[in-house]
Write a structure and sequence with these properties.
mainly alpha, MetI-like fold, 0% strand, globular
C-alpha cells in the first residue's frame, strides 16, 4: 500500500509539473521556430529549430546595454539588501523599548502595495536628484521586509551561548554579525540574494516612471521597446523573453537548495 500511495503521489506531482512547465516549453519552442501561435493543429515538437531569432533579438536593440544596466541595478539591490536586511534582522533579535510597535509597523507595511506609495517614492527620488539613474531605479528595492524577517528567524535560531562567548572574547556587534551570524545563516543569505535579484530584475513599473533616456533602460523596458518598434516578431519576441528570464532562472537554480532551506528553516525554527 505504501508503494502504491508513493506511486500515486509521484504521478500526481509529475502531472502537475508537466502542466506548469508547458507554457515555458511553448515559449522556448516558439523562440526557436517562430511558428504562428494560432496554427491548428499545433505542433508539439519544434519544426526546423534554429537560433536566428535569438540573433535578431540580440542585434535589433542594444541588448548588451540593457543587460549591463539590469545587472548593475540588480547588484546594487542585492548588496544593499544583504547589508540593510541583515542589520535590521539582527536588531530585531534584541530587546528594546517599543519593539512590539516596530514589529507591528513592519508587518503592517507589508500589507501596503507599492502602487499606493509610488507617488511619494517618485517625489523623494526626484528631490534626491536620482531620476534617470541606476541608483534611482534601485532605490525603492534597497530593502525588503520579508527578507528582514528571514534574517531575524535565522539569527534567533543561533544558540545564545555562542553569541555570549563571542562577546566575552571581545567581538563587537558588527563582528558578531559578520563573523558568526551570517556564516551560520547561509540559507537566509541565499534566499535574500535570490528574492532581491529576481524582484529587481523583473521590475517594470518603477523603471518606466524614473527612466528618461534610452541609455538607462533595463531589460523589461527594452522588451517593451522591442515589441513597440518591430512588427511580425513572434520568434524574436519570444527569444527576447527567454533572454530576459534566463539570468533569474540561473540564479535560482544555482542557489535552489539553500533557498528552500532558508524558507523552511525560518518557518520551523522561528
Amino acid at each position: 500500500m505504501k508503494t502504491r500511495s508513493k506511486l500515486l503521489v509521484h504521478a500526481a506531482l509529475i502531472t502537475v509539473s508537466l502542466i506548469m512547465l508547458t507554457p515555458i516549453y511553448w515559449v522556448l519552442k516558439t523562440s526557436l521556430t517562430g511558428e504562428n501561435l494560432f496554427t491548428y493543429p499545433p505542433s508539439i515538437l519544434p519544426v526546423d529549430p534554429n537560433l536566428y531569432y535569438y540573433v535578431e533579438a540580440w542585434y535589433s536593440v542594444s541588448f548588451l546595454r540593457l543587460f549591463f544596466n539590469s545587472v548593475v541595478v540588480a547588484l546594487i539591490v542585492v548588496a544593499a539588501n544583504l547589508v540593510l536586511n541583515a542589520m535590521a534582522g539582527y536588531a530585531l533579535t534584541k530587546q528594546f523599548p517599543g519593539k512590539p510597535l516596530v514589529l507591528g509597523f513592519l508587518l503592517a507595511s507589508m500589507m501596503i502595495p507599492f502602487h499606493a506609495t509610488i507617488i511619494p517614492a517618485y517625489l523623494l527620488t526626484s528631490q534626491l536628484g536620482l531620476l534617470d539613474s541606476k541608483l534611482g531605479i534601485a532605490l525603492p528595492a534597497l530593502s525588503h521586509i520579508v527578507c528582514i524577517f528571514l534574517f531575524k528567524s535565522n539569527f534567533e535560531a543561533v544558540p545564545a551561548s555562542l553569541i555570549h562567548a563571542a562577546r566575552i572574547d571581545g567581538l563587537s556587534e558588527w563582528q558578531i554579525l559578520t563573523r558568526i551570524l551570517l556564516p551560520l545563516s547561509k540559507p537566509a543569505v541565499a534566499t535574500n540574494v535570490i528574492l532581491s535579484f529576481i524582484w529587481s530584475w523583473n521590475e517594470f513599473l518603477w523603471p518606466l516612471l524614473v527612466v528618461r533616456s534610452p541609455g538607462q533602460q533595463t531589460m523589461p523596458l527594452g522588451l517593451v521597446a522591442f515589441l513597440a518598434s518591430f512588427e511580425d516578431t513572434t520568434g524574436a519576441l519570444y527569444a527576447f523573453c527567454v533572454l530576459v528570464v534566463l539570468p533569474g532562472l540561473l540564479v535560482f537554480l544555482l542557489a535552489q537548495r539553500d533557498f528552500i532551506r532558508g524558507l523552511t528553516s525560518g518557518a520551523a525554527k522561528g
